Amino acid sequence: MLSIGIGDGPETMHQALDLARQYRDRPETPRIWASAGIHPQEAAQADPDRAASSSESGDEFRKDSLATLDALLGEPEVIACGEIGLDYYHDDNPPREVQQRVFAAQMDIAAAHKLPILIHCRPGTAIRSADGLEANAWTDTLDQIEAQWSRTGLGGVLHCFTGKPEHARRALDLGFMISFAGNVTYPSASGLREIARVLPLDRMLVETDAPFLAPVPERGKRNEPAMITRTAAQLSALHGISPEELAERTTANFLRFFHVAEDQ
Length: 264
Ligand SMILES: [Zn+2]
Prior knowledge:
Helix content is 39%, strand content 12%. It contains 9 helices and 7 strands, in the order βαβααβαβαβαβαβαα.
């Protein structure tokens, strides 16, 4: 499994790596790998432009956040950069321009380490940009990936996918995997289930997004890795296969996509 290293912000994004090392040699525990990344909601803490042009006391910290990420991505247990991306959902999120700069800076660092990226994308509610077009986090994210990332050939994962069919199609064209969380089990998620039903099984991953989005019938509880079986059962039913086969397929996808071996 992959433990996501965003911490509570850049200063704690090493915690997933700590977990991976803590459980490294315990035969009763599945192998844990780690990621590291600066979540878009924390992007202001790592804005390269602000670090370069201002003399605020936080400057060193901003430069440090990207330098820390660079160091973490060099560790052997760290196999991906993320969650990174764009989040337009909350009004108090960093400005879109800041998020886009920090997303770009992190893609550069990930490319230097030849690691795939894990994308967090959450659209807002009808924010209007200067040219009068509605801002859409999915379009902006996929545009930025296409312009800056697709040439690396390293691919990535759309984590906790909530987009529309055209976003899934575009992501597949860009060589991305699509990962589903517990919300695919929610009664209102019929559109998401239809995307999952037609998604080629070799491009699918399954995740918790813990502590959020506990699947039905655990909905509302603190989500934990053990509850992944509920999400996997939903996905297997959509594809008309057994949960065991779904588990085998998604595990094989994970090992192939991240270039790792179970006993590594
Ligand atoms: Zn996320």
